[in-house]
């Protein structure tokens, strides 16, 4: 059986929490959601946050909190998820795309500077999405003086400060969808580490419609998986280190974290320096599935203007994801390691 790139699952001990929710009179927003919010704050380490039913809801609430309105502009990476642009476009908010570094897959301050200069008068915020799993250096975007929304979905657990990782973000967004490091079967967390911003988020949470808040059903699953998050991250890091050893000295490479932090363990991206079709075919023959790392990006969707962001375009065409999740097991990890060591 082939090893899938992502595998969301419910363990037997998770079922007990979910079943406890199902036998209550209501599975709408309630006591399980309150427990999930309290546990998430203690585990992830934020000042205040609230859960909503989808990442789309989370981004829309973030825009409202920052008072981003029609006619404003936001700067994002060309490799950010394309649904960002969809949400922004529906609200009449313009987007400027920043190119990325070949080494990290993230925009550097210089990349953002180039993107922002074209729309400096109406650019109101930056959205950071560490699509490669690499967290930008702390405070490196402070020069722009703009609010920062940090998407931690692919970077949570990567580096300084334990699970939480701040780059000076005004607020952060964590998706809990399928394939995420922490999943509740749907939903998102909007949170902040700043006391002043926390007061603003509390006011926003009070105005949330019940239909926008996460249900107890999703919260019960998230609560069960949150209990095992530290162990899950530790296992993923062990597997990632094994993969790094297998790739040492090879022509293909992965993205590396600068400084003292570790790159995230959401998946294992590999930048291919040969025929990508040949690599995909080779891995498939060895029962290892792969996916294009940035298939869901704005660049892949063709919305980035032609000729802009050449590094992002190149990486979108030649970066593959290999499986990296705790369900791989020791035998699976060894199999993938051998494949990585012998890629054509």
What does this structure look like?
The chain has 344 residues and is of the alpha/beta class. It has 2 domains: 12-226, Aspartate Aminotransferase, domain 2 (3-Layer(aba) Sandwich); 229-341, Aspartate Aminotransferase, domain 1 (Alpha-Beta Complex), CATH 3.90.1150. The protein is 39% helix and 13% strand. It contains 12 helices and 10 strands. It has a 7-stranded mixed beta sheet with strand order 1-7-6-5-4-2-3, sandwiched between helices. A 3-stranded antiparallel beta sheet has the order 8-10-9. Strand 2, helix 4 (82-90) and strand 3 form a beta-alpha-beta unit. The model has no long low-confidence stretch (mean pLDDT 88).
- Any idea of the CATH class of the largest domain? Alpha Beta
Distance between the ends = 22 Å
- List the strand order in the largest sheet: 1-7-6-5-4-2-3
Radius of gyration: 20 Å
Low-confidence stretches: none
Give the total of domains.
Answer: 2
Mean pLDDT: 88
Counted beta strands: 10
CATH topology-level fold name of the largest domain: Aspartate Aminotransferase, domain 2
Instruction: Describe the sheet with the most strands.
Output: 7 strands, mixed
Structural class: alpha/beta
Residue share in helix? 25-40%
The CATH architecture assignment of the largest domain turns out to be 3-Layer(aba) Sandwich
Shape summary: globular
Q: What is the CATH superfamily classification of the largest domain?
A: Type I PLP-dependent aspartate aminotransferase-like (Major domain)
Strand residue percentage: 5-15%
Q: Helix and strand succession?
A: HHEHEHEHEEEEHHHEHEHHEH
